[in-house]
Amino acid sequence: MATAGVIGGALALTALGGTGYAATGGNGSGTGAASQAPTQAPAPAQTSAPVSAAAPVSAAGQAQTKTQGDQTGAQAASDARIKITPAAGSYGVAVGTPVVVTVSDGKLTKVTVTAVASGTEVAGSLSADGTSWKSTGPLTRATTYQVASEAVDAQGRSVTENATISTVSPANNFIGHLSPQNGSTVGVGMPVTVTFGKAVGDKAAVQSAIKVSSSSGQQVVGHWFGDHRLDFRPQNYWKAGSTVTVTLSSNGVQRTVTFKIGRSQISTVDARTKQMTVVRDGKKIKTIPISSGSAEHPTYNGRMVISEKYRQVHMNGATVGLTEKDGKPSYDIKAVPHAMRLTDSGTFIHGNYWGTDAVFGKVNTSHGCVGLKDVRGGGDGRTPAAWFFDNSMTGDVVVIKNSQDKTKLAPDNGLSDWNMPWSAWVSGSATG
User: Fold this and answer.
1) 33 has pLDDT over 50
2) What is the tens place of the pLDDT at every residue in 69-118?
3) 247, exposed or middle or buried, with CB in 10 Å at 0-12, 13-18, 19+?
4) Is 228 one of the annotated active-site residues of the chain?
5) For 361-389, what is each residue's pLDDT tens digit?
6) Which of 177, 297, 314, 369 is catalytic?
7) Topology of 265-418 in CATH?
8) Are 343 and 400 spatial neighbours (Cβ–Cβ below 8 Å)?
9) N or C end of the chain, less CB within 10 A?
10) CA-CA distances (angstroms) from residue 77 to 37, 156, 171, 345?
């Protein structure tokens, strides 16, 4: 008997957008109780989930080390602490429930609540003392919202907190969350991900109610990561230009979700040569000088998938213990441009405006992310970082090789499913 996923024999799922695209500030966490703490963790979480996960995941971001031309200067960690209600990763939120953001030991400076798919902002009001914000506009059913907030403490030191929440489905019986969203176009590496707010006991019964097929004819198999996450993918990347259909069946009622696979784009980062080669539909279209993780903080090796895109994110190392001897954060950069998430544990590929020309293509200096040359504010579309951001979509694959990192990238760390051999993937299916 399933402990989640089946109610009265009916599988309840909502097909909402599982990937975010934001032009806001913040740390780009999408979800995460620890989203005031951006950095790549020294080792991946073993039971992490993508942006559509019901359980909070660690926020992530990073920057090149201060010694390699960080023009921002180190700033002590802020005393202000932000709380968002409903909590990050909440599903089935009633449309009449207001979004409330509060801060202790500080004042709020900016709060936005934005529908991920449409970009529509929800109206709200700030209290007279600046310590709380409450939405005044209505929420829409079956919609994913991104909450982005900023605050400062008495010394003017800033902090950010982000969260992603999803409202109740029309049937008012939300249990599972499906990604990517219906009608979307994604890259060839995007798996189908279903996450559950409660542990699933009868995995075979739940998985049997979900069928995934492709117009390419590729065999698609489901794999369980623990009791809360079920992913589907073919043995190799989806065929470019194909259509993927997800059919949800229960008690004679059938629901269909479809999404398109765009052009194939595979970008390979070579940490040894410090170059990234972008291959589209089998043809090399660009080579970009990069700077990846230093010897102390090497970048993960492996196949990763872009799950979120942010035009700017705030990255601060102090909240995860990356500090100098005097206690100041190793980095504190309020607006890192053109940032795209590669893992839940913190790997981003992003713009770097503080590094000199002596960095890119020549030395690895970061805390684990991949940096591309950029300008402050990200306003110059001619920079390598802007070009890569504008020419990438969620679901695109980024392969990192020849890094000094010796840890193994977990397949459930973000959308890193492709790091699991096919035989192991198939063995994780509950339906044989």
Assistant:
1) no
2) 333 334 567 899 999 999 987 877 888 899 999 999 999 999 999 988 78
3) middle
4) no
5) 999 999 899 999 999 999 999 999 999 99
6) 369
7) L,D-transpeptidase catalytic domain-like (2.40.440)
8) no
9) N
10) 10, 11, 44, 21
Average the pLDDT over 397-406 and give the result. 97
Q: How confident is the model over 271-295, as a mean pLDDT?
A: 97
Distance CA 62, CA 364 (A): 13
- In angstroms, rounded to a whole number, what is the distance separating the alpha carbons of residues 189 and 264? 9
Residue 44 — pLDDT band, cuts 50, 70, 90?
A: very low
Query: Which amino acid is it at 90?
Result: S
Q: Are 34 and 48 in contact (CB under 8 A)?
A: no
The ranges assigned to domains in the chain are 265-418
State the amino acid at position 151 in one-letter form.
Answer: A
Catalytic residue among 228, 297, 314, 350, which? Answer: 350
